[in-house]
Amino acid sequence: MIFLLTLISFFSGSLMFSYWLGLLKKKNIKSVGDGNPGAANLWKAAGYKFGIFGVLLDFLKGYIPIKLILKNELVSDVQWLPIALAPLLGHAFSPFLKFHGGKALAVSFGMWSALTSFHVSFAYAVILAIMFSTLHVIKKGKPISSEEDGFQATLGMFLLSFYLHYRDFPMYILAIWLGNFLLFLYKNRTGNMQVIKNWVNKRNRELHV
Ligand SMILES: O=P(O)(O)OC[C@H](O)CO
């Protein structure tokens, strides 16, 4: 039963809606921006209407399977670990894209929204909004790169752990968080290293002026 539900959730996550919506507009979003087959590049390639639709569908493919399983009380506590992470892994390693999927931000929001009735996804959104505004001020309005976006998503996910701990979320939720965090670390590894390298170089230049 757990295996079947994990498989269904994985399949749902593996549906690459943003990528397919791009193809509808004759755009390959894997060759746009940072090449991530997610809604941000769909937005860039096909405009805001397609972008919003992409965000919504990528959100729902995480939300719907988890909500249905939760509603029907099919699993409990620790059994949630593989099932909740499955849509994220489906998006990140989609068989429809030869296992080269996306960064799994939108689908993570969907999964957390269903699993915790929007509680955790709202907290994560607040953390990201604070980080985004802070970075905007630091960069004095200059555009934020996709590497910085990915770095914020990873750091924001890390900071979310303090909130989960503070609000006494159960162990299985912390385990799901850990899986989500490790996935973000992996999927953003190149961009994160680039952001850290740029920051260290900038600090060195400032120290030697
Ligand atoms: O993480 P993805 O693949 O859902 O894509 C996320 C959006 O493009 C926003 O960065």
TrEMBL record:
InterPro entries: G3P_acylTferase_PlsY
GO MF, one example: acyl-phosphate glycerol-3-phosphate acyltransferase activity
GO BP of this protein: phospholipid biosynthetic process
Transmembrane segments: 80-97, 117-138, 172-188
Keywords: Acyltransferase, Cell membrane, Lipid biosynthesis, Lipid metabolism, Membrane, Phospholipid biosynthesis, Phospholipid metabolism, Transferase, Transmembrane, Transmembrane helix
SMART domains, per the entry: G3P_acyltransf
GO cellular component: plasma membrane
Protein name, as recorded: Glycerol-3-phosphate acyltransferase
Taxonomic source organism: Fervidibacillus halotolerans
